[in-house]
Amino acid sequence: MKKFFLFLMVIGFCFAGEISHHNHHIKHCDLSVKEQLMDNPSKEVMDLMHLPMMCEKWIESGNAEIDFLENMIPHHQGAILSSKVLLKYSQNPKVIEFATAIIQSQEKEITHFKLVLKDLKKTKTKNYKQFAKKAKQDMHLMEEAMQKVKESGDVNKDFIASMIPHHQGAIIASRQILEWSKNPEIIQIAKAIIQDQEKEIQAFKEFLENPKE
Length: 213
Prior knowledge:
Blueprint: H1 2-10, H2 31-36, H3 41-48, H4 51-55, H5 64-89, H6 93-119, H7 128-147, H8 155-178, H9 184-209
Pfam families: DUF305
Organism: Helicobacter anseris
Keywords: Coiled coil
């Protein structure tokens, strides 16, 4: 846990707000101020991938389906934010294609998530604490995997290398909700995330093995 909060301090997320040890919630996040602390393209792209997740309260509603969608929204927002910043720096056609596809698909998914949330019944999930504990553990594992990605000085490689564990986090969360939900719409959303992001991860790995301008 100490390592996690040290990480937040190093990347400059902590200075503007107050952190809740239970929710990792940072109040008063100011993107324009955060961007001023990022002194190179790779750092900006990699750090902004974390920002929405760090700035939004981790949801524990008592309902697994609500938690899944509510916590997936800032996860997607991080991918979108990082992708939009990447487009300011990249001249690599393939990476531009990746980033553009992430923005388009995940903005559409967020809109869908919000519509689904309006209709979800707020019934308590049986054995909810078990679900919530595993979801939070998986979140920490994703954060640790992303921390292990070191800046190479190549913004394209750093964006892709960071996006792999970020996508893997969404896949793990989606697989978890499939074990709990019987809602056809939630199941469809989770399966689509798994299918789409596994395909993207494979493309990312192929790019890292053979990057082409």
